Every structure is written in structure tokens, then in C-alpha cells.
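Every protein is a chain of amino acids, and every chain bends into a shape of its own. The protein below has been through that process, and both of its lines are reproduced in full.
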Amino acid sequence: MHSSLVFSICAATIAVLGTRLTRIVDQLADRTGLGEAVTGAILLGAATSLSGAVLSVTAAWKGHPELAVSNALGGIAVQTLFLAVADIFYRRANLEHAAASVPNMLQNALLISLLALILLAPYMPGFTIWGVHPVTPVLFGLYAYGIHLVKGAQQKPMWHPSVTRETREDVPEPEEATPALPRLTVEFLVLMLLLGLAGWILVPAATNIAEQTGLGQTTVGVFLTATSTSLPELVTSIAAVRRGALTLAVGGIVGGNAFDTLFTAASDVAYREGSIYHAVSDDTIFWVILALVMSGILMMGLIRRQEQGFAGIGAESVAIITVYGLGVGLMFSR
């Protein structure tokens, strides 16, 4: 009972703090001139993912590789699902149509590449250098290169999606309408640290729940910790949609997903018993494959740009929800 109460309090705290983050990051995008796609990927993605990162690294350090990796990769699947949920809240058109941009598509391509590399790692030799598998630095390097490409595409795009009446471009607010940059920076850092603290407290609670219920660390990681630490992404994406910051909504989710793959790399550094990629089960690999399929469907939606779908939700969003539901059903039927 104690672990469940702590878990619930931490999950609620993460949701509340995540709501506040949306406005702060949207204003930082305008103040810094980086744009919603880049700030969504770097600032919002990192901040909303910090609680999950802390949880995964701490779990790996304490010798729970399955919980560490399943939390990281299960979060990617559920956060992609949250983007489909945000599409439901935007009634004017399909979110993939209205928020289509080169940076968001590049971020999704980066995510697919990172997931594929993680999927490849268990089939490589399990040797490590100072306890770190060679794939880990490659993941960090690929992420840094991908963000460099996203920033370049934001500043000097080589092509543009067709502008329609439902396209919502990233237009900065007037400078006088936003707080000063130092104040926004301080608020952002405080919220980010609080989210990280909540993730750190979640680790023992999640581990206890796994032991008490007999569900196993993969199931707890995918459904309990991944969902609770992903609540900021759900809250911030819906809040961003309601603010009209559609590029931020998509960029925050997809950029956060790409950042989440680094949980696995950081967990490999923290895991002292060898390569963490070789310590995960087939159930965790299953969720990597599922996240790849969902990301591929999202990419098709961003390229296709269906303007209107059934009941205000695009075909790709319906497909993402369906695939996730099938994944949950298969997980519990194994």
C-alpha cells in the first residue's frame, strides 16, 4: 500500500509540473529564436523525460536492467500514443497535417534510426570497454548529429510543406508579451529538477510493486513507470495543442522520444555487470519493435498530411492507437 501511495503521488506531481512546462518552453522558443521544433526536441523533450531518465539510470545502477530499459523504451510507445490522443483534442484538422514541418520529420527519422541501433545491439558481440558497450557512444553521437540537422533545417530548410488553410506555422509572440529570459530559464530549471526528483523517488516504489504483484519488471516498466513518467508528455502535448503551438506539441513528443533512447545508453553506463543490451528479455525487444512500427506510421502521417479524417482524427492516429492496443493485448497473452 505504501509503495502504491508513493507511486500515485509522484505520478500526480509529474503531471502537474508538466502542465507548467508547456507555457515556459513555448515562451523560451520565442525568446531564444530557436523555434518550437528545436525547443520541443531539446528543452521540452529533455525536461519531460528527466524523471524517466533518472528512473532508468537508477534502476540500472541498482542492478535492475530489465526495469531500466523497459521504462525507457516502453515510454516511447506510450508517448507516441499520446500524440494520437492530442490529435483528438485538435478539432480543426489532423494534427499531422497542421503541424507538418521539416524539423519534426527529421526528428522522427532520427528516432527511427536510434531505435534500430538499439534493436541491433543485442545481436552484436557482448564485449564492453570499461563496462560500456560500443553502441552506447554511437547512440550519443548519432543523437547529437541528428539535433544538429534539426537545428539546420529550422534555420535554413531545403524544402517546405505545402501551406494550406489549416497549416499552423511557428509564429513567435511579441517580445513584450513574454517574461524576461533569465526568469524563464530559472523556472524551467526548477521544474526540470523537480521532475527528476519525482523520477528518482519512483524507482523503489516501482520495484516494490513488481515484487509484490508478481507482474515482473518488464510489465511494471512498460505500463506503470513508463506511463507515469510519460504523463508530462501527455499533459504538455494537449496543453500545447490548446495554445495553438502545434509544432511544439509534435516536436515535444517526437523529440522527447529520441531523447528517451539515450536512457538506454545512459543506463548501459550505469549498469556495472556488462552490456545492458544483452541483459534485456524478448519482451523488451518486442516494445522496441512496436515503437518502431508506431514511429513509422507517424512518419507516413507527417508526409501524407491527411487534412480531415474520421471524427476529427487522422487515419494514422487511428492506426497508432490500434497498434498500441494490439501490443498490449499480445503482451498479456504471452
